[in-house]
Amino acid sequence: MMTMFLYKERLLSPGQLKRLSEHKYSFTSTSLLDSLLQPWWNWLVSKLPLWLAPNLITVWGLIVNILTTLILVWYSPDAKEEAPRWACFACALGLFVYQSLDAIDGKQARRTGTSSPLGELFDHGCDSISTVFVALSACIAVQLGFYPSWMFFQCFCAMTLFYCAHWQTYVSGTLRFGKVDVTEAQFTIIFIHLISAVFGPSVWMTKIPYLNFQLKGLILVSTIIVGSINVYQYFYVIFTGGVGKNGSTVALPWLNMELKLIPIYVAVLVAVLLAQSKVAIIITGGVGKNGSTVAGTSVLSPIIPFSLVVVPAFIIYRKSIEHVYEEHPALYILAFGMVAAKVTNRLVVAHMTKNEMEYLDSALIGPAMLFLNQYFNFFIKEYIVLWLCLIWVTFDLLRYSCQVCVEICEHLKIQLFRIPVRSAIVGSEKNGMGSLSIHGGGGGSGKQSRSKHSKKFQH
């Protein structure tokens, strides 16, 4: 009943659901901070009741992160006003809470014996939304509204890097985390919020002696350096790591692209990301026929859906006579961020169901409102259209996410936010009424006990 209420047709075919139920999470990680944080995560999960569902832990962490960011948005919607120091501290605390809860949901799943592919999908879905709010909060904390182009780059760079991480997973079948990755980025932003909380957001306007360089410039430099390294790693996997037939992705063989088209797509991507020019060197060709992926599709096919988000966002920003982005940057980033989150979720679903990713999406109706309004000489005030865009894309994202979860729950015969009584009892007996068996994970390799990301997606 609920499925039919959300959409007229089911989103996932029986074949996709079957492949999803057979999906096994695969990752590698060399994160510097994860091993240091393991004792904290292990202690924290040991304090949780066995009846608490892992997905409920994830969603509550996301809610805390969103609410604390919205406090900053309330006080500084243009990212120019100096937000209260307590709001910056609340944002730092909210991100730490989210990061901690996001790190222990998989531990709780293995502890209660409720691991399933739905947990991985739900976790990635929440992360895609969190990425938007985390990037936006960091920009507000350092008053990047005075530099709108810079703020645009920072926010869309974060969304793009997150998308690329799952793009290379779609190609290789394995999610890879480097030494400086998501955990390190989260703690860097927590540190930025704490500095703003202690010294005030205006501290980032301070010029570094002898360099005539504002302190906030260090954020841009670090973003470009770390982002370029990650992009290099992602594209190395994308172009050489296909695990499907003939080096394809995890999906099925419907679409292949000629090798000669690879430089065109990479040139576009490099222009959007402002990444290092040497990315082009990576393009030596896929290891399989026509450089295909795990789904049997082109390794470059995922660039098209995301380009339909980033390119319109940039064009609308630059063409706006009313300067809708400069006047309302937080609202603008949230609107397009929700579209990016929807597209990323669809990529994760395509990977886990080994299916081709469709290019067009209903969420693009939102940006189309702004584009058509500009095309017809601003028939409606852009600020109003931007609000309509945000409302639509948020509704569309929630509708899609809810239906996918409902369909998977029906197929796997599980509940999203509840643990069966039997699972809780078994978990209690298995762990000696609270004595955790979390070192070494749920039947995985020893690496699972050393990485946040291993335990995250096992529920």
Task: Write structural notes for this entry.
The structure is a single chain. By secondary structure, the protein is mainly alpha-helical. The chain is 62% helix and 2% strand. The strands form 2 sheets. A two-stranded parallel ribbon has the order 1-2. It starts with a helix and ends with a helix. Residues 1-5, 245-291 and 433-459 have low confidence and may be disordered. It comes from Gryllus longicercus.
Low-confidence stretches: 1-5, 245-291, 433-459
The CATH class assignment is Mainly Alpha
Q: What characteristic shape results from the CA principal axes?
A: globular
Helix percentage: 55-70%
Layout of helices and strands, plus pairs?
Elements: H1 2-6, H2 14-21, E1 27-29, H3 34-46, H4 54-75, H5 85-112, H6 117-141, H7 148-172, E2 175-177, H8 182-199, E3 207-208, E4 213-214, H9 217-240, H10 262-273, H11 279-282, H12 303-319, H13 324-327, H14 329-352, H15 365-375, H16 382-412, H17 421-430, H18 452-456
Parallel strand pairs: 1-2
Antiparallel strand pairs: 3-4
Helix pairs in contact: 3-5, 4-5, 4-6, 5-6, 5-8, 6-7, 6-8, 6-14, 7-9, 7-14, 12-14, 12-15, 14-16, 15-16
